[in-house]
Amino acid sequence: MPPKLKILFVVAETWPLAKTGGLADVVPALAQALIERGHDVRILMPAYRAAEEMFAGKAAGRLFEVLPGVDRARLIRGALPGYDIPMWLLHCPGLYDREGGPYGDAQGRDWPDNAVRFAVLCKVAARFATGRGLDGWKPDILHGHDWHTGLVPAYASFDSRVTAATVYTIHNLAYQGNFDPGLREMIGIPPQAFQPDGLEFYGRLSFMKAGLWYADHLSTVSPTYAGQIQTREYGCGMEGVLQHRRDVVTGILNGVDQVVWNPATDPLLPARFSAASLDGKARCKLELQDRFGLARGPDTPVVGMVGRMTTQKGWDLLVQAAPALLADKVQFVLVGNGEHDVERQVAGLAALHPDRVGVHLGYDEALSHLVIAGADIFTVPSRFEPSGLTQMYSQRYGTPPVVRRTGGLADSVIGTTPAGIADGSATGFFFEEAAAGALAAALGEAVNLFRRDPAAWARLQANGMARDFGWHHPAALYEDAYAAAWRQARARRRAAPA
Ligand code: ADP
Ligand code: GLC
After folding, report:
1. Residue 113 alpha carbon to ligand 2 centre in Å
2. Cα–Cα distance between 68 and 135 in angstroms, integer?
3. CA 57 – ligand 2 centroid, Å
4. In the predicted model, is pLDDT for residue 134 greater than 80?
């Protein structure tokens, strides 16, 4: 394997061009860390309307056909704004130039042609690796992220001209991209691939299954989740194929972009702070209480939560756990959006307790920084969590997290015990069962320590703020995954019929 790799990241979202969740934070930070280690990393993403506007004036390449019956596409070459990462936007206005998000319209309905939209992205990625001159650059590694890119390893393994090794990273197994098998021919999948030992998943054509089946190496975003997805409880039906491929599955905990998420320099905060002086954090708390119309009170514990409003994240547990804490004069600041049912429950809590619960339903990057900085306690009560980022951000911002012991939450928080506070290891609080009572008890424990033992609380904050969640270490583990993929690809090609 060449010591300096050419790596193509294939993604459906990357900050700051498109973001619906943590994937968008991971892509540029991991790419940057790999570049700093000497690799040539480039990103390929669809030219959604907003992304294309940010690339205005950049040169577009020639038109080429991707799939029969679909508009021809071209590549716009530029660099990811705010980073020095070379990237291509895949320009195909009929598929990507729309009002709405990467996956659906403004009402949250999936685009009906998502299979074709992302098949086209995958096909172009595989074509890069054939050396057929898309901008004259041929990757050694094709690295796809999440179901939208599951067909990258499939197309790559169907085309004998592709020499690149493929790595496929599962950021969330619950989103699978399972479609009507009638699409198979149109998106250029050979009939023999549509079977259980291939990309069929209970009669559907599954992008996720394709990634899991065909990639030379698989990774997911924490060691604990890597084990969990091989079980029935967390495998979302894919546990069989993941057990089958367990020798090529690696769990690599996400890092944090420590430039963007640094309380000492964060431009989105009204005041900055560090472990040496938390005065700025106190100002952020007052501003947060003002923003949400809550009574100012430096001593009132404020619990914050930020995230997509889906069943995964356990908002319903928080809504049920909250009354016990509200009776104990705790305030809540909650920011998120997503499923209407979950939004309604969270808004209902605020309507009942307007003086103690502040809610913002919507996506607001600056507000997410203010909550993470200004709250005293942060919570992530997820039913499952592949990695999770906000619990790492909150540790960096002196806001100890209360999390369920699952997935990446288990791997990134160190639970509080008296010994753990004293020896500098404890950074947060765990609860085990996905139940409101368990969450309420853990939040109660945190609130008690906050109120009763300011010195211990300050140590807990300092422990979290001192942790290094940088991408340097995960990037080194991805290098190992690329090496494993490289070996696997060579073996695969040797075994292929001539
Ligand atoms: P997931 O990818 O499952 O949504 P992560 O914890 O990995 O969870 O990442 C979520 C990211 O999205 C974080 O950067 C978080 O701050 C951000 N985020 C989620 N919802 C919102 C929102 N409503 N407003 C602002 N940022 C949000
Ligand atoms: C997914 C997961 C989350 C993870 C993120 C980035 O959306 O739900 O746990 O942090 O991807 O890897």
Report:
1. 24
2. 22
3. 33
4. no
Ligand 1, pocket residues at CB < 6 Å: 21-23, 25, 306-308, 335-337, 363-365, 368, 387-390
Summarize the confidence of residues 311-325 as an average pLDDT: 98
Residues 376-391 have pLDDT tens digits of 999 999 999 999 999 9
Ligand 1 pocket, mutate which of 339, 363, 393 (most atoms under 8 A from CB): 363
Closest protein CA for atom 11 of ligand 2: 171
164 is written with which tokens?
Answer: 């690149």
| CATH top class, domain 6-255+472-495 | alpha beta
Distance 25 CA to ligand 2 centre (A): 9
- Give the architecture (CATH level 2) of 279-465: 3-Layer(aba) Sandwich (3.40)
The yes-or-no verdict on residue 4 having pLDDT over 80 is: yes
pLDDT of residue 417: 87
Which pLDDT score is estimated for 350? 98
